[in-house]
Design goal:
Helix content is 81%, strand content 0%. It is mainly α.
């Protein structure tokens, strides 16, 4: 029994490597981007929770931040993670942050101009994305990249609209509290 590879496999490897090397790089970059995004997102959620101590969503924001940071660290420190496991983890993470975003936003519905509807829309889209990813985890790398890209853009837009809405609410509150020049 020989410990060497069959001649066809060894001889064909350079040709195979030439065809698939980009997928290893894409997986690595994707894992880094997702991991870093999750950590940064988690840190901002925790900072936001600390800045608004005593609010009705403080604990949820901290939980959301911790879940995001843990997910990001897991993606970054598990270098051998397969694409299938990464996709499943992204789906689960998206569902968890979507649920927490909705719960947090519902708590602000009584506050005028709080932007709570945008938080619910963003949370629902995140849950939908997570479910789609979990239903079709093996759809292929290109499809997953497109889904993640579309989700990231839509999620980003809803968060930007939410931020603008919150800024408007803050301006309205400040204008009502004190006269402006």
């Amino acid at each position: 029994m020989s410990a060497t590879m069959p001649p066809n496999t060894a001889a064909g490897f350079p040709s195979l490597a030439k065809k698939i090397w980009i997928f290893a790089i894409i997986r690595g970059v994707l894992a880094i981007v997702i991991g870093v995004y999750a950590i940064v997102n988690g840190v901002f959620d925790i900072i936001e929770a600390i800045r608004h101590r005593g609010s009705s969503s403080m604990v949820l924001r901290i939980v959301l931040g911790v879940v995001s940071i843990l997910f990001g660290m897991l993606v970054l420190v598990w270098p051998g993670i397969s694409l299938a496991i990464l996709v499943i983890m992204v789906g689960i993470w998206a569902i968890i942050i979507g649920i927490l975003q909705i719960v947090s936003s519902v708590r602000h519905r009584a506050i005028p101009n709080s932007g709570w509807v945008w938080g619910i829309i963003g949370g629902a889209l995140s849950i939908l994305f997570g479910i789609l990813v979990l239903i079709w985890p093996g759809t292929g790398l290109v499809t997953i990249i497109w889904i993640i890209g579309i989700w990231a853009i839509v999620w980003g837009v809803t968060l930007i609209v939410l931020g603008v809405q919150l800024r408007k609410a803050a301006s309205t509150t400040e204008a009502g509290a004190s006269p402006t020049a």
